[in-house]
UniProtKB/TrEMBL annotation:
Protein name: DNA ligase
Sequence ranges assigned to domain ATP-dependent DNA ligase family profile in this UniProt record: 359-505
EC numbers for this chain: 6.5.1.1
Listed CDD domains: Adenylation_DNA_ligase_I_Euk (cd07900), OBF_DNA_ligase_I (cd07969)
GO biological process terms, semicolon-separated: DNA biosynthetic process; DNA recombination; DNA repair; DNA replication
Lineage, top ranks: Eukaryota, Viridiplantae, Streptophyta, Embryophyta, Tracheophyta
UniProt keyword annotation of Nucleotide-binding present: yes
Source organism (scientific name): Triticum aestivum (Wheat)
A family per Pfam: DNA_ligase_A_M
């Protein structure tokens, strides 16, 4: 029987993989800063798992990325630093005050635990932990609720801590506090896993799969689909399954219809209203049930019982299963189907994980505007061009105005798609104006035939957005993450003000500062944030992956996303957003920023990226150069 023992712990085929195998790899990855080498290390780890314990690959992917379930299962780990510290005190023979003191020096609970364990004399070697032990214990922890749950959780954490060997302690303790500090997010894990799959298939003389195929399928589907138990790793078997959300396709920003038309020159495209609501991915499963997923791929079915009924009632019952992309918008049916703003829609009750809101308690009615279809009756449609995909939608349901409608659209055919065609520009500008008058955020433009597939999880050039705010010169808004703050003065004494805001750079996995924000907040909001950013959410020092020349008095863990709008964008010697992209040593900053709202359904890594900030900056520069020649033009 083959046995694996490189950097890894030794184990034989068919046996559960030791957690030490992961911990040793994490340790190597933590020390190595180069992306290529860390990917190779992770790839080797996955290869050994594929060869010896394939059932441990999924738990390992979860443990590497600090998850315990696919996002749409809405499972939370439910343990915080204080429980871990209490278990450390009991199992490592170090008092809480000593642990807190050490934490101030190390800035990391995992390092503290590792140090305490090294100073401990054990009577007998602990029973080895396996990958699946750790993973299943974390899932159990998440399921514990009700009276005495803190005590029951602590027993499980104690069991894990007591069983740790070598550097296992460091990573095991970091897991519940959600910071492995190995920079191994999905972006690093996916290529490593894809390489491992291809090499594994080659060695086991299975079907020959190309790296690009595996990569793109993993990118599209891995997070939700592959992480569902039972999926295997042969690229051909990475199937789409209704009930498992697809990461949504996203659009690029443009500064007006003129620029958008230039970008789509010579290609047929559709313009659609960009509704100001909440994205909804609607799944009908073969058993007739309906599930709704948010932009974050969270199950939001319980929030929309009325939408579920509409789909059941209005969709063609001969189509057994489908996955639709749509926007749910608040609607006032007593006022001629007036569309409401996103804010009005968000005042609607949310429902909970286990129970839907009652239909009779619904205060804000909704209309759903369907704009895409990704799966129909067992057929994956991602690679079909949009024009074809849209024909599937037409066969799927009868529109019912004010309830279920197709997104309003204007088609521009290939021979009309030219900036020199004034009639096209005029039609598009009027369409844009009509969209704005109908309370929409602007319009979306999408290629119909060329490069017109549904690129799950990607922000693509084949989807463009023209937003009213931008065209009106107010500046597009950014979704930014508070990463630090100063203590407020005067009226704001006792609260935090200003906050330091950052965008995310997925390439370097860094949060890069964009601006300080100190306006747009209510007093209640200040109070709420003072309570929210406390305890473990305050970091002892600036993390290496926060990039800025600012020195706030407090550093926060990346938790929330806020919509921020400013006058315009400018180069900055202090802020690091998109540094090196539009200027070799300067980043981009927002001038006169103000807080618009919190964006609760977005995770910090899903905020505006450095590329978004750079594109907005470039678009602004171009806009200044191009003279306006009509509404929406620019
Ligand atoms: P934004 O903050 O501008 O809404 P985003 O990052 O959520 O952007 P984008 O792909 O950039 O996503 O913009 C499209 C968003 O607009 C979608 O997420 C969706 O919620 C919404 N939307 C409204 N109408 C449409 C439409 N017809 N087609 C696609 N998306 C639409």
């Amino acid at each position: 029987m083959p046995c694996m023992s490189t950097s890894a712990a030794c184990w034989t085929a068919g046996q559960p993989a030791p957690y030490l195998h992961l911990a040793r790899t994490f340790d190597l990855v933590e020390r190595e800063k180069g992306k290529i080498k860390t990917t190779a290390m992770l790839c080797n780890m996955f290869r050994s798992l594929l060869a010896l314990s394939p059932n441990d690959v999924l738990p390992a992917v979860y443990l590497c990325t600090n998850k315990i379930s696919p996002d749409h299962e809405n499972m939370e780990l439910n343990i915080g630093g204080s429980l871990v510290i209490s278990a450390m005190e009991e199992s490592l023979g170090t008092s809480k005050s000593k642990i807190h003191e050490m934490y101030k020096t190390y800035g990391d609970l995992g390092d503290v635990a590792q140090e305490c364990r090294q100073n401990q004399t054990l009577l007998a070697p602990p029973r080895p932990l396996s990958v699946r032990d750790v993973y299943s214990t974390l899932r159990k922890l998440s399921a514990i609720s009700g009276g005495g749950s803190a005590g029951r959780r602590k027993i499980l954490v104690l069991h894990l801590i007591r069983s740790c060997r070598e550097m296992e302690m460091k990573f095991l303790v970091r897991t519940p506090v959600r910071n492995l500090r190995i920079g191994a997010m999905m972006k690093t894990i996916l290529p490593a896993l894809a390489h491992a799959v291809v090499l594994h298939e080659k060695c086991s003389t299975g079907p020959v799969v190309s790296l690009e195929d595996v990569k793109s399928q993993l990118q599209d589907l891995l997070v939700p689909s592959l992480l569902c138990e039972g999926a295997t790793f042969a690229a051909s078997s990475l199937a789409m399954v209704p009930g498992t959300p697809i990461p949504p396709m996203l659009a690029r920003i443009t500064n007006g219809v003129t620029q958008a038309l230039k970008l789509f020159h010579g290609r047929a495209f559709t313009c659609e209203y960009k509704y100001d609501g909440q994205r909804a991915q609607i799944h009908r499963l073969t058993d007739g049930s309906v599930q709704i997923f948010s932009r974050q791929m969270k199950d939001s079915t319980s929030q929309f019982p009325d939408l579920v009924n509409m789909i059941k009632e209005l969709c063609n019952s001969e189509v057994a299963s489908f996955i639709l992309d749509a926007e749910v918008v608040g609607i006032d049916r007593n006022k001629g189907n007036r569309l409401m703003s996103f804010q009005e829609l968000s005042s609607r009750e949310r429902g909970s994980k286990n129970s839907s809101i009652a239909i009779q308690n619904i205060k804000v009615d909704i209309c759903v505007f369907v704009f895409d279809i990704m799966f129909c009756n067992g057929q994956r449609l991602l690679d079909n061009p949009l024009r074809q995909r849209r024909s599937y939608i037409h066969d799927l349901f009868q529109e019912k105005p004010g309830y279920l409608e197709l997104a309003q659209q204007l088609i521009v055919e290939e021979d009309e798609a030219s900036i020199d065609n004034s009639s096209t520009l005029h039609r598009m500008s009027s369409f844009f104006e009509k969209a704005c008058q109908s309370s929409c955020e602007g319009i979306m433009l999408k290629t119909l035939d060329i490069d017109a597939g549904y690129s799950a999880s990607k922000r693509c050039d084949s989807w463009l957005k023209v937003k009213r705010d931008y065209v009106e010169g107010l500046g597009d808004s950014l979704d930014l993450v508070p990463i630090g703050a100063w203590y407020g003065n005067g009226r704001k004494a006792g609260w935090y003000s200003p906050f330091l805001m950052a965008c995310y750079n997925p390439e370097s996995e860094e949060f890069q500062s964009v601006c300080r924000v100190m306006s747009g907040f209510s007093d209640d909001f200040y109070k709420e944030m003072k309570e929210f950013y406390s305890g473990e959410k305050i970091l002892p020092k600036k993390p290496v992956y926060y990039k800025t020349d600012e020195q706030p008095e407090l550093w926060f863990t990346a938790e929330q996303v806020w919509e921020i709008r400013g006058a315009d964008l400018t180069l900055s010697p202090v802020h690091h957003a998109a540094i090196g992209v539009v200027h070799p040593s300067r980043g981009i900053s927002v001038r006169m920023p103000r807080h618009i709202r919190c964006v609760p359904d977005r995770s910090p890594e899903d905020c505006s990226t450095a590329t978004d900030v750079a594109s907005m900056f470039r678009a602004q520069t171009r806009k200044m150069e191009v003279s306006s020649d009509g509404p929406g033009a620019g």
